[in-house]
Amino acid sequence: MSWASRIIEDIELRPFWRDLGANELSSRVEALLNHQKANWPLLREGTQNLSQVVTRRIPLGRFEILAQFNPQRLTSAAAPVDRESVRNRPCFLCAENLPPEEKGLAYGEAFVILPNPAPILDRHLSIVHRQHIEQAIADHFEVMLDLAKDLSPAYFVLYNGPQCGASAPDHLHFQACTREGLLIERHLEAIETDPGLSVHRHEVVTTTEIELLALEDYHLSVLIYRGSHRKMLAGWFYETLKILADLTGKQPEPLINVVVCAGDRSGHIFSKDRGWTVYLFPRAQHRPSCYYAEGEDKLMVSPGALDLVGCLVVPVEEHFRKVGPEVARQIFSEVTLGEPLFSHLVRKLKERTLGLLAEA
Ligand SMILES: [Zn+2]
Predict the structure, then answer these.
(1) 157-168 as b/e: b if 16+ CB within 10 A
(2) How confident is the model over 76-86, as pLDDT tens digits?
(3) CATH of the domain at 252
């Protein structure tokens, strides 16, 4: 089945469209999900399972994340992503291999928005390129910005690098979920309003167009970019990737997860004053040591962007019971870029600004 026959037209969506007057992308996505839940049993089941999923709060200092026991994610967490295994399996994101009931919305000429039948968060979507091309962010980061803007303010968009959580490293795709699950956004709000917190924001780059921050003493390494200037934001993002690739020796793409949202979570859509927020997680490795451990120490945890923003997925019940603050901290410190490389990255970015100012 080709992409052309998988694209759902607005006329088919009409009976599932609650707010017929609205034409924004998020209202069409809502209609798509309603249509698909009515017509695709696997998605209906997956959504029902998500509503029964068990979660537990994990305090990390003054913040909190959630551990989620989600057996639906076992296949994905355990997926072999080495080149050989990937080459030898049919690609589950290519149009001809999707379940016959699965339909999507066209996003521009190149992408299709599809429901994710094994959701981690509410209204979990996959945004899939129509061609079978490798998962790589180069030249596609701007698509993430556009998607986050078009889906603002209800959704955030994420990218998992081919060696950092993407279970289809051979087929370019993004994901999107509703913003309530973006706990890091609440953490950042707290850090910026409560000077008494032990975590601090460190201003790496501040220009009239963008702001680039790093968090100090947070439970993982992250860079945060804010601004409403698309080109400038993309410029700094790609510049960071270049420095990171040099620092870590991972070419052409360093190990990363990326999350983008736009507008704000109190309901304002994208505007000049409420532009994009990008979270870039530089990674040290894909899976933590507990993933490879044997016996009692084994924990099936395979972190991608969603785990890093505050929803740590554990698909095995016995392992889920063992995940507490200490284990979570250990996992985050192993999989995100540690010191001294992270400080080095920050220093390089600062030097880059000074260089640009000198050039101006
Ligand atoms: Zn494919």
Answers:
(1) bbbbbbbbbbbb
(2) 888 888 888 88
(3) 3.30.428.70
